[in-house]
Amino acid sequence: MNLNILVLPGDGIGPEVTREAVRVLNRVADKWGHSVSLTEALLGGIAIHKTGNPMPEVTARLALAADATLMGAVGLPEFDDAPPEKRPERGLLGIRKILGVFANLRPVRAYASLIESSPLKNHLVEGTDMIIVRELTGGIYYGTPRGISGVGAEERAVNTMTYTRAEIERVSRMAFHLAQARRKKVTSVDKSNVLENSQLWRRVVIEVSAEFPDVALEHILVDNCAMQLVLNPRRFDVVLTENMFGDILSDEGAVLAGSIGMLPSASIGGRRPSGAWTGLYEPVHGSAPDIAGQNKANPLGAIGSVAAMLDYSFGLKEEAAAVNRAMETVLNSGRVTADLRPAGRPSTTEEVGEAVAAAL
Ligand code: NAD
Question: What residue owns the CA closest to ligand 1's atom 27?
Answer without folding.
Answer: 286
